[in-house]
Design goal:
The chain has one helix and eight strands, in the order H-E-E-E-E-E-E-E-E. It is of the alpha+beta class and about 160 residues long. The protein has two domains: about 40 residues; about 100 residues, Lipocalin (Beta Barrel). The chain has an eight-stranded antiparallel barrel with strand order 1-2-3-4-5-6-7-8.
């Protein structure tokens, strides 16, 4: 038999205290980790849903302005939407030293966030949509600028070739 231990009275063969086995430690570990894993999976699933859920329709003609140094240049977007996929045109009249600009855009909706890039890479943006208003940032030759647009025109007609 093994000599008594001062802390718990005696030590079981193999040097372990009685009642604490590796099986019990594994069970305890599982009980403690399971809620953490479930919480982590639930959060990950919610983020995935938010990214893929389209909660706003951005089809139509949007106009507004960008903010930043040197004034408030005007910007307009003519957008078509098919699910989360967005296509259209960005238009900017001449402003300061920049001439007028018009180019095709492609983008997507993720929840209420509209992200786009102009085909030649001159402009891109990320705007949060709330009904007939969108606010966010547009990146272009003048750098990053705040942007605020309002939907006020008729919805562009679908391309005949796509139907």
């Amino acid at each position: 038999m093994t000599a008594p231990s001062a802390s718990i009275g005696w030590t079981a063969p193999g040097g372990r205290a009685p009642g604490i086995t590796s099986r019990r430690l594994r069970r305890l570990g599982c009980l403690l980790l399971t809620p953490l894993l479930i919480t982590g999976l639930a959060c990950a699933r919610r983020d995935w849903i938010d990214r893929t859920l389209v909660t706003e329709n951005v089809a139509g003609v949007w106009s507004g302005s960008m903010t930043g140094p040197g004034g408030r240049p005007v910007v307009s977007l003519e957008l078509r939407q098919q699910g989360a996929r967005i296509t259209g045109v960005i238009n900017l009249p001449a402003y300061g030293s920049l001439g007028s600009y018009s180019g095709p855009v492609e983008g997507s909706m993720a929840g209420d966030v509209f992200s786009f890039k102009e085909a030649r890479g001159a402009y891109s943006g990320e705007l949060t949509v709330a009904g007939d208003d969108m606010v966010g940032q547009i990146f272009g030759p003048m750098g990053k600028r705040g942007a605020s647009l309002h939907r006020g025109g008729a919805e562009p007609q679908p391309d005949a070739a796509k139907h």
